[in-house]
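Re: pyridoxal-5'-phosphate structure - here you go.
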Amino acid sequence: MAEVRVVDLRSDTVTRPTDGMRAAMAAAEVGDDVYAEDPTVNALQERVATMFGHEAALFTPTGSMANQIGLQLLVPRGEELLCDADAHVVTYEIGAAAALGGISTRTWPAVAAEIDVEAVAAMVRPAGYHAVPTRAIAVEQTHNRGGGAVLPLSTLEGLRRVADTAELFLHCDGARIWHAHIADGVPLQTYGRLFDTVSVCLSKGLGAPIGSLVMGSAERIEHARLLRKRLGGGMRQVGVLAAAGDYALTHHLARLADDHARARRLAEALAPCGIVDAARVRTNVVPLDLTKCAIDAPTLGALARERGVLVSVLGPRVGRLLTHLDVDDAGIERAIEVLTGLLT
Ligand SMILES: *Cc1c(COP(=O)(O)O)cnc(C)c1O
């Protein structure tokens, strides 16, 4: 019997290392990274910091840890972070800012890429002995729950001005900032100079099995080493993983354009079913809105799964598809055939 290949569109985290990546991992020189003696980790950290024009970067096991270290570097205990209500740092990091960082968070309504910079400025609390001191603003590029939306550079520059005026810091959750760079052509250094701390993931669209980095000034990243160890993220001969990330940056960054084109193909093919606003699909995320459909999201998910297509079910009427390294054109056509068949 011919092997039936499952088309897994649930997330871009499901990719498996390629043969080339595994070869790079096997060949990696390693050392004890808690002593900062792993040459492959050190090289990756330098490479990524340089890409964003930051002084230093630190390798972490997850994006959540990179974000939380970034926030702890900027916001002292008992002080306040502003972000949108759908931000990964407040929805998907299990309350870590509060539980581990003692950070108070206040959110503005989630509007993905349409941030009202003036409204954010108005949220900053006045200095004095009454209010929680506002210390930092966090944004997400691209925006995960915002359907992979790309924040316009002008919005980010506006937030930087707000931060400078109010003497706040700016953190970017850049788990998918690579996608924004490829979609909008904004240089990574242009993004980098706008933020005091930036986190990036190697294990999403770039296809590494594990790994994120947090970057900032040399002084901050020196302190980040201590915070990472406290969080249990001090790793040893981790160059085998850094080598995967280094390989991903060399071989899998430019090809994100293919993932974006495939997401657009999916969106345009599914638009007639009334579940996708194709004009809003800019990167590798295709949000599905099933409010006007005969079937709900869990039913669509279950029926598609029986047919070898995996869809993310986020709510009774909300689903999501993500394109990535392990889905080719044939997989996309298969998914379109299965999903349009179930929806029409
Ligand atoms: C995936 C992701 C992260 C990091 O998630 P981990 O699972 O902790 O690596 C952070 N921010 C966003 C927006 C993400 O999509």
